[in-house]
Design brief:
The complex is a heterodimer of chains A (101) and B (169). Chain A has three helices and no strands. With 101 residues, chain A is mainly α. Chain A has one domain. By secondary structure, chain B is mainly α. Chain B has a domain of 40 residues. Helix content of chain B is 78%, strand content 0%. Chain B contains seven helices and no strands. Classes of the chains: A mainly alpha (101), B mainly alpha (169).
Chain lengths: 101, 169
């Protein structure tokens, strides 16, 4: 590894924060799900950087399973968005208040 | 020197694409910015010699998952949501919260770790990231986890079909 580990960790921190801001700022439920994917990616980057700098495969195995779970999460999340869109005809998370009262 | 240049190029484009996803008003452009970001992260994996994870990243994330997102966006025929009128205090609070999280993470990175890490050589790193070594570990030590991931994906597929099919009142 020619680049210091800290640079990868700092990049990962920045990407994770942008993902958090996306979850908090955006009103479109699909874009919120995409921001969650961005946060998962930032964590994956940290895991791969540690795994490669320590020469241990366990971190990359974790990333592999994280990608599998992210695929499952995207499929179920988008199905829920489609189901909500059918009943409310919007994906604005301010309008979706099924559980509010 | 070339490795440093490649890292900073990919990192800059990745952060710029993430910010583009954040500020884009149209969900389709958000998704396309995220695809660019995922490609840059795959490139970063390749600069770390993690070739298997890099290829998986392009195939699964930039390929399958983002196609699913774009498909749903186009299926629902979404337009950009109308811009809110006045300044919302929850958004200011959200921005402050995000900056606090960034400061915390940066503090942890800057302070450094107590665990001393001896950096491995490039040849060793290339071996750790190769599909052969990862597959040997995946099908022996992590075989049970692999089966569970398969069952999870099956359950998610069936659940997604059931959810998207049913009309709930």
């Amino acid at each position: 590894m020619e680049i210091a580990l800290n640079w990868y960790l700092a990049l990962s921190a920045v990407l994770f924060t942008i993902g958090v801001l996306g979850v908090l700022f955006k009103r479109n439920a699909i874009v919120v799900l995409m921001s969650v994917e961005l946060m998962l990616n930032a964590v994956n980057l940290t895991l791969v950087a540690f795994s490669q700098s320590m020469g241990d495969v366990a971190g990359q195995m974790l990333v592999f399973f994280a990608i599998a779970v992210a695929a499952a999460e995207a499929a179920v999340g988008l199905a829920i968005v489609i189901a909500i869109f059918r009943s409310k005809v919007t994906v604005d998370i301010n309008e979706i208040n099924l559980f509010k009262y | 020197m070339a490795a440093q240049f490649l890292f900073f190029l990919l990192a800059t484009v990745a952060v710029a694409a993430a910010i583009g996803m954040l500020v884009a008003r149209n969900p389709v452009s958000s998704a396309l910015w995220l695809v660019l970001n995922l490609f840059c992260i795959a490139g970063l994996y390749l600069t770390m010699n993690a070739s298997f994870i890099g290829v998986i990243q392009i195939l699964v994330y930039a390929g399958a998952i983002m196609v699913l997102f774009l498909f749903v966006i186009m299926l629902l025929n979404l337009q950009a949501l109308p811009r809110p009128g006045d300044i919302e205090w929850t958004k200011v609070l959200a921005f402050v919260l995000g900056m606090v999280i960034l400061a915390q993470l940066m503090y942890v990175v800057a302070v450094g770790l107590d665990v001393p890490i001896e950096p491995v050589t490039t040849a060793q790193a290339a071996e750790t990231g190769s599909a052969e070594v990862l597959a040997r570990s995946l099908f022996t030590e992590y075989a049970l986890h692999l089966e569970m991931a398969g069952i999870l994906l099956l359950a998610a597929t069936i659940g997604a079909v059931m959810l998207a099919q049913r009309r709930f009142e």
